[in-house]
Every structure is written in C-alpha cells, then in structure tokens.
Amino acid sequence: MIAPWNRRAVFIDFSEEDARRVIEVLKRHDIEYYGKRGSNMRARGRGIEQGFNSDICKTPETRYTFYVYVHRKDAKRAREILEREYVSSKE
What are residue 47's DSSP bridge partners? Predict the structure, then answer.
C-alpha cells in the first residue's frame, strides 16, 4: 500500500496524457503507483477564485496538476526506468 508517509513523487505535470504514459511504463515494470489529479483552482464563496498561480489557470490545459507517486522503496528504480523509457521517447 502506498500511504502518504511512504510515497515519493516521480511525476508532476499539467498533462494528463503524459501522466497516462508514465503510468503505463510503471505498469509494464510491475511498479505499484498512486495517481492523483489536483486542481489549480480553489472554490471560494459562491464563485470560483483562482489559486496562487492564477496566470497558469487561464488555459483549460493547466487547470489541473497530475501527480504520480510510487512507494519509496521503488522510487529509485522507477526514476531510472522513467528516465530510460519515458524521457527518451519524448526526444
């Protein structure tokens, strides 16, 4: 189980498509992961107020931040695999 105290982030980005690619690489190598979508907007009163990074939130593509975490014991291995397979495929 990946709990908040034993996880490490291996991916943080605005792209849902990239987050899915990272997850596919982790699945192929049997690395347990936890994915999360965080909003860059916050609700206030009756309306929506933009968060601290209000310039970023102006486009729909950047309204959410996607996080992918792995267990801390797998973090080094996951980063090495992602460096080799995910980063090299983007170049």
Answer: 44
Instruction: Give the tokens for residue 38.
Output: 């965080």
Give me the pLDDT at residue 39, please.
77
* 61 vs 46: which has the higher pLDDT: 61
Q: What whole-number distance in Å separates Cα of residue 60 and Cα of residue 74?
A: 33
**Which is more confident, 61 or 21?**
21
Number of neighbouring beta carbons within 10 Å of residue 35: 15
- Name the amino acid, one letter, at 11: F
- The CATH-assigned architecture of domain 4-90 is 2-Layer Sandwich (3.30)
Dist. CA 12–CA 91, nearest whole Å: 18
Domain parsing of the chain, residue ranges: 4-90
Mean pLDDT score, 8-30: 94
